Amino acid sequence: MAAADESGLPSRRRLGVWLGAGLLAGALGGRSAAAAAPRRLRLFQVHTRESFDAVYHDGERLLEAAVEPLAWFMRDHHLDLATEMDPGVYDLLWRLSQRYLRARGHQVTINVHSAFRSEETNARLRSEGAALDSYHLRGQAVDVSVQGYGIHFLANHARAIATGGLGIYWRAGYCHFDTGPPRFWYRR
Questions:
Q1: Helix (H) or strand (E) holding 54
Q2: Residue 42: which domain range?
Q3: Fewer CB atoms inside 10 A, N or C side of the chain?
Q4: Alpha helices in 38-150 (DSSP H)
């Protein structure tokens, strides 16, 4: 379940469409009211079968009580190694769940396929397309799908909320989000 070519640059046209959609979604999203509300994540790790369902942010700041459990949940499950994740990754997941909530009227569970990766795990996944300098290595990336919804629905929501790297993996059925510079790629 490796992310591939995270350093690839999009065409100007694709980048313009992607950035335009993201800016429009942000302008229409009513973020000021949502920013003050507590933020809950409902996550499921597809490889370890573990769940995380809790408030991680009080609307003002990340909750200290959620930092360690979230870092462990997002660990490199191949080696059981955790790191401090970029809180922006959690916010991307929360924004994704909020889009589904508005569109479908209920809280969804987001499946995590991959988050933090150690150097060793990333090297093993290179044959599957993992980037040499992957944002997964820095705790700045996550690969996700959404329970009960297909890749087309996920891709539409992902394009609206992505602020850094966004990779869409059609056959694998998941999207890659990271908090690096804006980039877009897809694999059929």
A1: strand 51-57
A2: 12-187
A3: C
A4: 64-73, 87-104, 119-125
Kindly report the number of other CB atoms within 10 A of residue 69's CB atom.
12
Q: What global pTM score does this model have? A: 0.79
- Domain tally for the chain? 1
Q: Distance (Å, rounded) from C-alpha 29 to C-alpha 23? A: 10
User: Is residue 47 one of the residues assigned to a domain?
Assistant: yes
Residue type, position 178, single letter:
D
Q: For residue range 50-80, list pLDDT tens digits in order.
A: 999 999 999 999 999 999 999 999 999 999 9
Does 90 map to a domain?
Answer: yes
Spatial separation of the C-alpha atoms in residues 97 and 188, rounded to whole Å: 24
> pLDDT digit string (tens) for 158-185?
999 989 999 999 999 999 999 999 999 9
Output the domain CATH number for residue 55: 3.30.1380.10
Cα–Cα distance measured from residue 64 to residue 167, given in angstroms and rounded to the nearest whole number:
30
Sign (positive or negative) of CA dihedral 80, 148, 107, 35: positive
Q: Does 3 map to a domain?
A: no
Q: Give 42's strand partners.
A: 53
